[in-house]
Amino acid sequence: MALFRGKASGAGEAKVAGERSLLLGIGISAIGIGMYVPFSLVFFHHVTGLSFTLVGLVMTVTGVAGLAFMPLAGSAVDRFGAKRVNLVLYGIRALGFALYPFAGSLPAFAAVALVTALADRSFSVVQQSLIGEVARGAARDRLQASTRALQNAGMGAGALLVSGVLALWGTGAFTHTAWANSLAFALAGLLVGRVRAVPAEGSGPSAGRPAAGYRTVLRDRPFLGLTAANFLTALGYCALSVLFPLYLSTWLAAPDSLTGAAFTLNTALCAGIGVLVAGRVRRSGARRTRSAALGALLFATAFAGQIVLGTLRPGQSATLAALLVIVVVYTLGELVHSPSGGALSVSAAPEPVRGRYLATYQLSYSLATALAPSLFTALLAVDGRLPWAVLTAAALGAAVSLLLLERHLPAEAVHAELPAAAATRRPATAAA
User: Is residue 42 very low, low, confident or very high in pLDDT (cuts 50, 70, 90)?
Assistant: First the structure.
């Protein structure tokens, strides 16, 4: 069965009302995130004056609490609409960072961090729902690709910006960075507020009217299968940040500078060619399940390459060249999988319960992120190639699962542009 077939009609390429404002807001928001995420412990230590131990403890507890809040955020999206909830979360984040410099005691910091963490953890669910609310067809894939490219570029720019500020003014500049973050989130919210939702298909939810509950999601076996397949792929997304640095320093005995080079290459490719790669995939007419499966196969290829490299252990120059090639293949897998996988999950979710569906789907990312550090370190302690073997098997399993699920998912989810003969009915288990 061919992964790619046919040509996209381009009918779904119409611009979204307020799209430029939406993307500009996402870019500005990403700059704000990049200004503190790479320095989280140091950032909050200098902003609040609390010890690293207390800051780390509060961040862990509030982060777990944020995960527990995600299902409630999904319900809020279904009741009030993604745009409204999105604006509320931007407002909470803006207020939180404005208050951080005044949270010098443990109770005050814990309170501000908790409220901000609830908004941060739920934001991905709401943003995915917003894309589904404002776009249809191939426009969803385009927005997914543009959003990812802007997030990578914005976070990189934010990290560079705060590094320059700290070099000039020292750690005291962290306080002003917190207020800059607050301003960035407030401005992003104002810009995103200009986007307009497209009319709901069929009997979509109206504000204030409760939709079906999470039992609807749990009865939808194809969507749960899609979520499980995404968990397998999500483990691969964690590899570059969690496993790669440990593998380099322990198993390959390579210099730590290679980690920075790999991150820089990955970020530059995501920001520079992400939209181009996604556009090429979209114009090929590939079904979303098949392009997402292709991305998983590229992941598997990169992970298998790490096994070969870890077995041969060539000299430093050869290792550097091989690692850069592997990172390029890995990044291409990310660029192919992410837009298609994101649009697939959004389009597979019935409109009245889209928030609940996407909250469930996003938990696959959160669970993988939580599991990855302990899983990778345990496997690495046995053999440096073992975690890559597990990731290869997981990525291959995800690819096969996506292809098997294709016939069971709604046609409007599988196809960015529905063929004339495609059935448009949704599986009975997914009916709201």
Answer: confident
